[in-house]
Amino acid sequence: MNNQYTHIILEKDFHSIIVKEYQGHYSVLKQESIHWLNPVDAGIWVDGTLGEAGHAAAALSAYPHIHLIGLDADTSMLQRAETNLSLYAGRYQLKNQFFDDYFHDPKTKQRPSIAILLDLGISMFHYKCAQRGFSYDDENALDMRLNPHDTQSISAQQLLATTSESDLAQLFWIYAEERHSRKIAKMIVTQRKKEPITSAKMLSDSIKAIIPQQKGHYLHPAAKVFQALRIAVNKELDRLERVLPASFDNLVVGGKLGIITFHSLEDRIVKHYFKTLAKPCQCPSSQLVCTCGGAIAKILTPKGILASEEEISQNPASRSARLRVIQKLSPNRGVKA
Q: Is Nucleotidyltransferase included in the keywords of this UniProt record (predicted)?
């Protein structure tokens, strides 16, 4: 785990809202994403987190000149996306793949993109319908993997069963700043000696038993632990750090990369990387060739784009969303403009 990122603003606790009110897909910051990524020329638009294709359908509708490549690690989501993209047959291609793997595929380098969108939030479908342990009252297996068929990954249940008490405490602190991390880790190790923790409800109830809901607080006692487990199981931060340079390299000059984050841990990573790309040249004006690593990109949304009050009222999950967009200005850091 990376100790560099320890101060976290937790993503909003909307598990219960989603479970009660889910009636279909709602794409966060959809109109804003379509507006800021607006491709002028024909080319490939990559939706690296396809989900139920809300963003993808909007992009195909708004820009008839694009061809869309949609990626998702979950085959069940690809099936739902296929249905929602039926009006755009022949204009898209779907791939069962994590976004970082796609952009590191040698074949991808031969297909540069004009626009790339990554929505780092978990689909509402997973909280309500996936039955993999994303919601607190789920009595199915505590899995939390976006791709449960990946034989190289371990489930949340396996992680809880095999990780040491000290490492669990560190995981809960680093990935969610859970102030009761040691107490919860100790409880888990004690509990698993008696019987394995096999479901989200079992874990949630065990945490509530030692960390009661505070009066006047909306946050579920297990919220931070669930976030930390999901991040760890799906290697979310590792994948984000891996995809950033690869996806930017895949852009054509003038192309745009948009990323929607949901908590400060991932947002800080994106913000820092974008600032690195946009750092202006510090070389003397008399020097014809840049040697300092000057700006090769322009940040289009310096503070990030937040959801409107109207969107938040319709979809509380969007309250913690932030869209950042950067545009590629140069293929390398060579000759100065």
A: no
